[in-house]
Every structure is written in C-alpha cells, then in structure tokens.
From TrEMBL:
Pfam families: Epimerase. GO terms for cellular component: mitochondrion. One of its GO terms (molecular function) is protein-containing complex binding. Residues 54-169 form the NAD-dependent epimerase/dehydratase domain. The keyword S-adenosyl-L-methionine does not apply. This is NADH-ubiquinone oxidoreductase 40 kDa subunit, mitochondrial. Keywords: Ubiquinone. The keyword DNA damage does not apply. Coiled coil: none annotated.
Amino acid sequence: MLGLSPKSLTTGFKLPVSLIKRSKSDLIVRRATREPIISQGPVGRQAWNGQTATVFGCTGFLGRYVVSALATQGTRVIIPYRGISENTRHLKPSGDLGMVIPMEFDIRNRTQVEEVMRHSDVVINLIGRNYETKNFTLEMVNIDAPARIAEIAQNVGVARFIHVSSLCADPNSKSAVY
C-alpha cells in the first residue's frame, strides 16, 4: 500500500512549536496574567447546581423563558404539561441532558400534582388563561388551580412557592375576566 510506513510519515515533518504546546493541555493560559484563554465556569450552561424547580405553565409565553433561564443556570427543571409531549420538546435543549424533565399531569389529580413537585426546592406557577375552555373555567384556572398548587406545595415541603398571575384582578370590575 504505497510503500509508506509509520516511520516514513513522521520523518521529515516539523510541527510548529505552538501546535505541540497546544496539544499538551486543553487549557491554555496567558503568560502575563496566568488566566485561561478559553472561557470556563458559570458562562453558558453548566452541570447541576443542586436546585430543582417545578414550573407550571411552562409552555406559555413567560414559562418558556423562565425554564430556559433556570436550566441555563444549572437548575434541574421539572416541566409539568397536559396534552401531548411534543408541546414541551422545544424546552429540553434549554439545559444539559436530563436537566429538563417533562411530566404529564392533570391539575384535578392531586396525586399527579404531588408527584411533579415532590423533589422540588421551588415551585413556580405561571398557569393562567383569560378565556374559558370546555374543560376549565376562568375560576378554576386562575383561582382554584393556584390555591391547590400552593396547598400541595406546602404539604410536600417545598421551600419556596412563586405565583405569577396573568390577570389584573379587580373585585369591582364588571367583566367576567377582570
């Protein structure tokens, strides 16, 4: 095969000194400051930071940004969803492999709600609608569901509960929505 041997391939070739030095280590430092040239540490995604968060309403307008911010910082994020799992597929690349965990749930099923927040340090509720559907009334989505999530979070032992309302509620309003 062409008469080449390993020895003939290496003789006569001179590699630049900079290439040889660079291959000795993955981390290259500046001579003057001894700081790494390659960015490392908290910039970008990183491994698990020890926190686990459950984000209800993760597929909504605000939810996708909250999940992305948490997952980028290294938080394990549990994203409860209803419907089909394809609705959460776009959120998985927000964090490292296995850090964004979709779990199917029904807000009316207490056992499922407990299961999605059982291991969480923080629960964030972003569920909200400004119109009724055939399955959920305005009162059920904007009043009953947050109350149920808060109660279960307290019973399960979640350290922090954050609720963001999608409505500007006014008890004197004539509208059914506000």
